[in-house]
Amino acid sequence: MKIEEKPLKIGDLIFASFEEFAAYVEAHQLPKEEVLRRVRERLKRFKEVYGMSSEDFYRNIAGTPAEDEPDYLEWKMEYETYLELLDEG
After folding, report:
1. Alpha-carbon distance 35 to 40, whole Å?
2. Which among 11, 29, 68, 82 is least surrounded, fewest beta carbons within 10 Å?
3. CB 18 within 8 A of CB 8
4. What are the angstrom distances between the C-alpha of 28 and each of 10, 39, 86?
């Protein structure tokens, strides 16, 4: 039995299949350099607001109960994304 695939609607966009959606996403991806620039900019804002580097934040706060604060959780995710992008080289 074959399952009939329904159109996928995301916002105003409608895709006939998941494959069509995946091709659209791949074609519209930002270059890695631009993603890295945007992540660095967000990390800079965290540093300005909280007065510590992302490295110090990650070493001292990530993994503690304080990490559950929404800003800290977002900061942790941004910093981990930054590290992953650097690791991809």
Report:
1. 9
2. 11
3. yes
4. 15, 18, 21
C-alpha–C-alpha distance, residues 44 and 35, integer Å: 14
Residues 46, 72: Cα–Cα separation, whole Å: 9
pLDDT of residue 89 exceeding 80: no
- Residue listed under structure tokens 């993603």: 35
Whole-number Å distance between alpha carbons of 70 and 75: 9
CA dihedral over 52, 37, 87, 89, signed as positive or negative? negative
Rounded Cα distance between 61 and 74, Å, is: 12
Query: What pLDDT shows up at residue 19?
Result: 87
The H or E element spanning position 9 is strand 8-10
Boundaries of every domain in the chain: 1-29, 32-88
